[in-house]
Automatic annotation (TrEMBL):
InterPro entries: FIT, FIT1, FITM1/2. PANTHER family: ACYL-COENZYME A DIPHOSPHATASE FITM2, FAT STORAGE-INDUCING TRANSMEMBRANE PROTEIN 1. The keyword Transferase does not apply. Belongs to the FIT family. FIT1 subfamily. One of its GO terms (molecular function) is coenzyme A diphosphatase activity. One of its GO terms (cellular component) is endoplasmic reticulum membrane. It comes from the Eukaryota. GO terms for biological process: lipid droplet formation; phospholipid biosynthetic process. This is Fat storage-inducing transmembrane protein 1 homolog. It is a multi-pass membrane protein. The lineage of its organism: Eukaryota, Metazoa, Chordata, Craniata, Vertebrata. May play a role in the formation of lipid droplets (LDs), which are storage organelles at the center of lipid and energy homeostasis. May directly bind to diacylglycerol (DAGs) and triacylglycerol.
Amino acid sequence: MDTKSKEEENTLIQKLLKVSSGGQMDMDLKTENSSNGFSTQINLEKLQKMAAELILLGKFLVRLLNAALVFVTNLLARMLGSKLVRGHFHLMLSALLLFGPVLSLWVPRYSIFANSNNYLYRKFLKSTWGWTCIFSGSFILLLSISARHPRSLLLRHLSRIVVVGLLLCVCHRLLALLEDASGTCYEPLKGSSVQLLLHEDCTKLSCLRANMVWRGYEVSQDVLIVCLCCLLLVEEMSVFGPYLAQTKMSPGAPLRLIFLLCVVLLSLWMFLLLCLLAHFPKFPAQHLGGALGYLGWRGLYQGWYRLKPSWGCPALPGEGLFTTTDIHKQPQ
């Protein structure tokens, strides 16, 4: 009997130990799960705090950039809209054309801008009108939308760019015909400086493609396009300053950004024109090109566009932004 009772006591003790060990394991598991959940909650809170700090930093940077954009565009708009700049910009451009070739006496011959295959020449100078058309057209479009112009007036404003493009196409064709009619093609002899007249009816393009020499009258079309684009950009952007002065609501960032890009483009065209005059002086081809660009601007912006509004006349820059008297008071 004693042995049986002892055995029963041992089995009971073992069962109690198992139950107590199982409960301890359950407590350990619960404690581990709770600690894992607490750490996960802490990580999520840290991520939320970091995200909130980044959002605040981003908002601060956006406000800072927007304030800088407003300050710079207001300053540039006031400068370009002044009578001094708009009324005398063509004189400054004429002085640059006249005295720019003198810089060829001091510029280094082996400068990066003395290479005609320079990146700026290839990417920008060869597509001057394309860049000007895109940026000036975008500025006119956004300015008209900001001023809530009717669709008919918007189309008239955009038609100015179309007219200048057609004028450049006509000038390019007429100048090409003039050069072909006034020039001749020569084939240089090997080992001699004497040149042999090859074809009188050969065009300039075919002559140059055949690696021969072309001699004749020439007008620099690069200078023509750059000068006309500079005058166009100044005319189109000069109305932004008076518009900012009279509007009650500040224009949005897209319009200001496009205006700033137009100013950068104008500076680039002026720099490339100076490089052409200093590193590749061609008298009188460049001066003739500049004179034709000036005549084109004078005939359009100072002549045709100032006529009474009609469907046959594109709108003058600023029409719909100011009163009629303000438009006619603009510097000529």
